[in-house]
Amino acid sequence: MANLIEFSLFAPYNKEAALIGSFSDWKDISMEKGKDGYFRTQVELEDGTYQYKFRVRSKSWFVEPDEWVEIVDPYATDIDDPTQNGIIRIKEGEKIIDTYVWKHDDKPLPPDHELVIYEMHIGDFSGGEDDPYARGKYQHVIEKLDYLCDLGVNAIELMPVKEYPGDHSWGYNPRYFFATESSYGTTEQLKHLIDECHGRGIRVLMDGVYNHSESSCPLTQIDHDYWYHHDPKDAEFNWGPEFNYEFYDENLDTYPARKFIGDTVRFWIREYHTDGIRYDAARQIGNYDFMGWIVQEAKHEAGVKPFYNVAEYVPESPSITNADGPMDGCWHDSFYHILTDHLCGDTFDLEQLKDILDGKRQGFMGATNMVNYLGNHDQNRLMVELGNREIFDEYAFKRVKLGVALLMTAVGIPLIWMGEEFGEYKPKTIDSAKIDWTLLGHESNQGLFQYYKGLIFLRKSNHALYTENIDFFHEDAEAKVFAYTRWNDQGSRVVVVVNFSDQYLAGYQVPHFPANGTWHEWTNNYDIESGDDNILIDLPEYEAKVFVWKE
């Protein structure tokens, strides 16, 4: 039983287009152009899976005028990697992507202010085990979800999973914006991963590349300057053809680049049930008008469920995420740089530390406006930075733990780069660098994991840490010691006392303590009394004490 299936291609200023496919023996099927700029044709197809492409007379400046070029459908939802053909599936006379049935759509997911995000690369997250199997697929992440639940994170941020050339990449070179990276598994397997995350109360944020595409993205071949800037806006930060969000087509009343990216963002939310987007290179996108529009489109598509839009806007600016800014939050890059300098012992500047722990001092408004991190895919892990300065073993673990205590108690949303939580020390590389899970068998690495786990639990369970409230009530720059308190209006309080020096400070008195009574020191699990607005503690070098109010 065959049904008429429509194929369409948006190419408003191209003279001719044709469809070719496995169903036509790869011979041309001519397409008619409508006044809306779409070429269309219908083909009788029985249920099954087919490969197809378009041929179009190109309007791009780098080929001969009106030269015929073969392209993949820019809206293809699956790609056969060896042939670089689009794949279309027909079931019961309709185009489908797959037959996955979602199981956990009714599970509640954490709101933005409760997030603890874990950034991962699908190919490198699993597969560093000492075992004979090649790993690095969606299904292998599913096998590690219990580990992530044990750690306590409640959101994962996937480095880009849109189809890119070859079998290994960070994904920042997307060629096909509606297709998933085939080397990681099928569309069903990606949906299964997201569904399993939802079943465990974990949100899934997608890394979206909307500043540029890979140079052989089909849109470049159809009519390059209709979707892209002719020349890069900034040659130093150019990673491929850059989308032109300013260009408006008066004849069709459309912004072509906005329309395409709007379509892909809505598609991923609708089809893959994603819960947020990290906008790569947002400073290079630069267009607040477009970004405000795409954020609204994403939220509208997501409906009642929480959806977090966070910009990689480096160096950061509060304007991207404040009241009149387009984004919900941005990567807090100064947090990383300033804290790394201090943890490595390169400098000590109390005002700088206060700036990053309390983003309001930098002009940010609220707790969800900043995503803080000790590292991410673009930076070397802290262990590497420490090692570069000849700081190893227990001395390195000590400083990392100090960083974790600040990360989990600062104002903002914490993000962990995969493997950091147990002391992975592979340097940054775009080559495959699978994290080494065997490290968890070592006492110090396991100890760091438990330290992360404990502070993540505190971060999620103590609502003082959801607020913007922070007060630096004790400052002793000479000793490199300071203390701050976080609180909410319901009586939750957390106090952090920090020693950034290399001196063990025995019997250190912390004045102006926020309340007299019993406090629980979280990281070493003991109770202590404060009285006369003071507390007396031993404060080891490069260590933070985290006190939680009991009564």
TrEMBL record:
<protein>
    <recommendedName>
        <fullName>Glycosyl hydrolase family 13 catalytic domain-containing protein</fullName>
    </recommendedName>
</protein>
<dbReference type="GO" id="GO:0004553">
    <property type="term" value="F:hydrolase activity, hydrolyzing O-glycosyl compounds"/>
</dbReference>
<dbReference type="GO" id="GO:0003844">
    <property type="term" value="F:1,4-alpha-glucan branching enzyme activity"/>
</dbReference>
<dbReference type="InterPro" id="IPR004193">
    <property type="entry name" value="Glyco_hydro_13_N"/>
</dbReference>
<dbReference type="InterPro" id="IPR014756">
    <property type="entry name" value="Ig_E-set"/>
</dbReference>
<dbReference type="InterPro" id="IPR013780">
    <property type="entry name" value="Glyco_hydro_b"/>
</dbReference>
<comment type="similarity">
    <text>Belongs to the glycosyl hydrolase 13 family.</text>
</comment>
<dbReference type="GO" id="GO:0005978">
    <property type="term" value="P:glycogen biosynthetic process"/>
</dbReference>
<feature type="domain" description="Glycosyl hydrolase family 13 catalytic">
    <location>
        <begin position="114"/>
        <end position="459"/>
    </location>
</feature>
<dbReference type="InterPro" id="IPR037439">
    <property type="entry name" value="Branching_enzy"/>
</dbReference>
<dbReference type="Pfam" id="PF02806">
    <property type="entry name" value="Alpha-amylase_C"/>
</dbReference>
<dbReference type="InterPro" id="IPR006047">
    <property type="entry name" value="GH13_cat_dom"/>
</dbReference>
<feature type="active site" description="Proton donor">
    <location>
        <position position="312"/>
    </location>
</feature>
<dbReference type="GO" id="GO:0043169">
    <property type="term" value="F:cation binding"/>
</dbReference>
<dbReference type="InterPro" id="IPR013783">
    <property type="entry name" value="Ig-like_fold"/>
</dbReference>
<feature type="active site" description="Nucleophile">
    <location>
        <position position="280"/>
    </location>
</feature>
<dbReference type="InterPro" id="IPR017853">
    <property type="entry name" value="GH"/>
</dbReference>
<dbReference type="Pfam" id="PF02922">
    <property type="entry name" value="CBM_48"/>
</dbReference>
<dbReference type="Pfam" id="PF00128">
    <property type="entry name" value="Alpha-amylase"/>
</dbReference>
<dbReference type="InterPro" id="IPR006048">
    <property type="entry name" value="A-amylase/branching_C"/>
</dbReference>
